[in-house]
Design goal:
Blueprint (H helix, E strand, L loop, with lengths): L20 H8 L15 H8 L19 H4 L2 H14 L3 H4 L2 E4 L4 E2 L2 E4 L17 E4 L4 E2 L1 E8 L2 H4 L4 H31 L4 E2 L7 H9 L8 E4 L1 H8 L2 H4 L16 E4 L7 E5 L5 E5 L4 E2 L1 H5 L5 E12 L5 E5 L2
Parallel strand pairs: 1-11, 7-14, 8-9
Antiparallel strand pairs: 2-5, 3-4, 6-13, 8-10, 10-14, 11-13, 12-13
Helix pairs in contact: 4-7
Length: 324
């Protein structure tokens, strides 16, 4: 008998200090012991789904009520919800524009800043080396809560296929991430305000995009964020019609910058950024659920939330083009 078949599942696994439910399962049933076995591709949670024969996708996909066959299998349902919501959040462009993700234990975060303005040049033994300083940031950022209340009683969802229910949750997660993205965009715009430039003519031209690219000196404009309407305008430029993307699902300008459709951005602004240095995402929690009520089927709704904010790591890594 494999070890995963004897793991004791209880709702207390969701409430361990500094451990997620998955981490608690991994402690009880380490994935390392399944190397070179038919179960090597599964994590600890997926092994529990196998244990209780819960199929979450495919032609023989089960219904929601399958999770509640036993008191132990019911413990797995909140993690199913969390994963579906998280999958939706990962569909957002947030992961593409975030250089680093930091976690903090409170709703206030104090990061660090780099002062690196002195020239990098040759020197000799009689001259002091130029200085770069990494110091504690002078400003504190406040972590904000984003959430959603999903009206979904057990009686309403028990007969729903798990794959369809997961798609509904994934959509909620995507919309939740889009609202978080609005905060990220606002932070980037604030940082770029002091150095923003305007288009040369009455309408956006390819030359304006090239000029924005040229504003980056010590950084590279690896991504360009634009609203759907502005994206549509860029895509019909002659220079874009003459190029083709080498990677399916990616659209790039002829000089290599990736175009990112960003509904959180207004039609009067384009943001260029070096995605490796521009933005830090700060979280004080992963997606939070009311797990006990879900496990006990005492739910008229499902609340999901995440505590997150953003700060600019290096202001020169983001530039703004004003179209107004």
């Amino acid at each position: 008998m494999y070890q995963y078949e004897s793991v004791k599942l209880e709702k207390g696994l969701y409430h361990l200090t500094n451990k997620s439910f998955l981490q608690a399962l991994e402690d009880a049933d380490p994935s390392a012991q399944y190397a070179n076995s038919p179960l090597s591709h599964l994590d600890a949670y997926e092994r529990q789904l196998k244990r209780f024969d819960i199929r979450v996708s495919g032609k023989l996909c089960d219904k929601v009520e399958k999770f509640f066959t036993t008191t132990e299998s019911a413990v797995l349902f909140p993690e199913f919800i969390r994963r579906a919501v998280m999958q939706g959040m990962e569909d957002s462009v947030l992961s593409e524009i975030t250089a680093a993700v930091s976690f903090c234990d409170s709703n206030r975060y104090l990061g660090c800043d780099l002062t690196d303005s002195n020239a990098y040049s040759t020197t000799n033994a009689t001259v002091a080396l130029p200085t770069s300083s990494i110091l504690e940031s002078a400003s504190v950022v406040t972590v904000e809560k984003y959430g959603r209340n999903i009206q979904a009683s057990y009686e309403a969802i028990r007969q729903q296929r798990l794959d369809v229910f997961a798609l509904m949750l994934r959509r909620v997660g995507k919309r939740l991430a889009d609202s978080v993205l609005s905060k990220a965009v606002a932070v980037l715009k604030t940082s770029a305000t002091a150095t923003k430039t305007s288009i040369a003519g009455d309408t956006l031209a390819y030359a304006d995009l090239a000029a924005l690219y040229g504003k980056f000196t010590s950084f590279s404009m690896k991504a360009l964020l634009a609203s759907p309407a502005v994206m549509a305008h860029i895509l019909v430029m002659n220079q874009m019609l003459e190029t083709s993307s080498q990677n399916v699902g990616e659209i790039r300008l002829p000089f290599g910058t990736k175009l990112i459709n960003c509904p959180a951005l207004d039609d009067d602004t384009i943001l260029g950024l070096d995605t490796d240095f521009a933005l830090e995402q700060v979280q004080s929690s992963e997606v939070i659920l009311e797990t006990d009520k879900i496990i006990e089927r005492q739910l008229d709704s499902i609340t999901v939330s995440v505590n997150v904010t953003f700060r600019t790591l290096m202001s020169d890594a983001v530039k703004m083009l004003d179209l107004s």
